[in-house]
Specification:
five-stranded mixed β-sheet; 273 residues; 8 helices; three-stranded antiparallel β-sheet; Purple Acid Phosphatase, chain A, domain 2
Length: 273
């Protein structure tokens, strides 16, 4: 599987050459954020889609951002690099494919789970699977447009089984696509984006919460470029900051062998995150 690409298509090609990827025998899985900020989101999206059954990706926050703009929510559209996709002749085909991507991929034979960002401490893996399906049904159904126009926001901050409507969907979305830190009261802290050690007192990385109910499950994720390549508490982080001049990283799930290629910085880190 491969960490966040964000439109860095030439680096993806170089990484696949290094790994010896064969679309006839191998399956590529992506940790989300296929698009945005990088130089060639359109080629990236077309490439992954055209791999058919040889590839799949979970949805990341930048992927949802693209879908929201497509549905008319331009509230966070300034400074994005997504116009080539939105103006492409196959735009609707690409974006309809994208909105049918999962929020969570579970590989039973490898006892491994792929998400983009994180899980709140209150959720078991079975909970996460259930809530992913709940949001996926909205993204793929008649509620898609309304969701895209109401998905942004940091509240609610804490999970309750009684959450309903857009509050429930927004919380699920923020966990799967935006989460980095949780407070000591098990609330989402979506404002902190730096590496561990830079956050304010009282917040810890979601995977370090001692009573996290998914702690026994092997989880792979991206999203957190300032975290880099990390294996701790049964999680593996794979966003190694390709966009910012770091590396693009792949890991072979069968034996956890890591492959990396060096990247050139493409964007100013102040853009949408």
């Amino acid at each position: 599987m491969i960490g966040d690409i964000q439109g860095c298509f030439s680096e993806l090609e170089a990484l696949l050459e290094k790994t010896g990827f064969n679309s006839n025998t191998d399956k590529l899985l992506f940790a989300g954020d296929l698009v945005n900020r990088g130089p060639d989101s359109l080629s990236t999206l077309r490439f992954v889609k055209n791999l058919g059954d040889s590839a799949d990706s979970v949805l990341g926050n930048h992927d949802l951002h693209l879908l929201a703009i497509w549905q008319g929510n331009a509230s966070h559209a300034s400074g994005n690099s997504l116009d080539p996709i939105l103006q492409a002749p196959d735009s609707d085909e690409l974006l309809n494919w994208l909105r049918h991507r999962p929020l969570l991929i579970h590989l039973e034979e490898l006892q491994s789970t792929i998400i983009h960002a994180g899980l709140p401490p209150q959720w078991t893996l079975e909970d996460a699977k259930k809530y992913a399906l709940e949001l996926e049904a909205v993204l793929r159904g008649d509620g898609f447009h309304d969701f895209c126009n109401n998905m942004y926001g940091n509240k609610p901050k804490k999970w309750r089984d009684s959450l309903e409507g857009i509050d429930r969907l927004r919380f699920i979305t923020n966990c799967f696509t935006r989460l980095r830190y949780c407070t000591e009261k098990d609330k989402l802290n979506l404002k902190e984006k730096g590496a561990p050690g830079t956050q304010k007192t009282g917040s810890v990385p979601w995977f370090d919460v001692e009573h996290r109910k998914s702690r026994a499950d092997k989880i792979f994720f991206g999203h957190w470029s300032t975290l880099g390549l990390l294996n701790r508490n049964n999680v593996w982080s794979l966003d190694t900051g390709c966009l910012w001049g770091g590396q693009l990283t792949a890991i072979r799930l069968e034996d956890l062998k890591v492959y990396q290629v060096e990247c050139e910085a493409s964007q100013n880190p102040k853009s949408f995150s």
